[in-house]
Design a protein that fits this description.
This protein has 135 residues and is α+β, with helices and mostly antiparallel strands. The chain has five helices and five strands.
Length: 135
């Protein structure tokens, strides 16, 4: 019984954030961009100190991840700019996201760093050594 109650609660949460993703995190936020990518099928949220979690509902039409997919990331220095490129890169590697990213997510994939004069001085991107089965 408890697993059916939990499943119903999860469906309620997925549906609610799918209808109003900006209520979870606000406009122009990473969570909101992910929620809009898969309305009603995803829950994505940051936590304290560089923690990020994503849950994707099962999708039998996908050959790569027909079952549910869960991701949890912890960035040592606690900065959100560290987990955003990693999550986007991983979602591309498992073919949950297309190689040509939607504009709303592309901004989180590679982030330009600016100095105090607003000059580009570098970028943040994922360099994770993903296993071959993710290719």
């Amino acid at each position: 019984r408890s697993s059916s109650v939990r499943a119903a609660a999860c469906r309620t949460i997925f549906t609610a954030v799918g209808h109003a993703p900006e209520m979870l995190a606000g406009e122009r936020r990473f969570c909101t961009a992910l929620l809009r990518q898969w309305p009603g099928r995803v829950f994505a949220k940051n936590g304290a100190e560089g923690v990020y979690a994503v849950a994707l509902a099962p999708d039998p039409t996908r050959s790569r991840w027909p079952g549910a997919l869960g991701i949890a990331i912890k960035i040592d220095d606690g900065a959100e700019r560290g987990y955003q490129p990693v999550i986007v890169d991983l979602l591309q590697r498992v073919h949950a996201l297309p190689a040509s990213l939607p504009k709303a997510l592309a901004a989180f994939h590679v982030q330009t760093l600016h100095n105090t004069q607003r000059l580009a001085v570098g970028e943040v991107r994922s360099t994770a050594p993903w296993p071959k089965e993710f290719a």
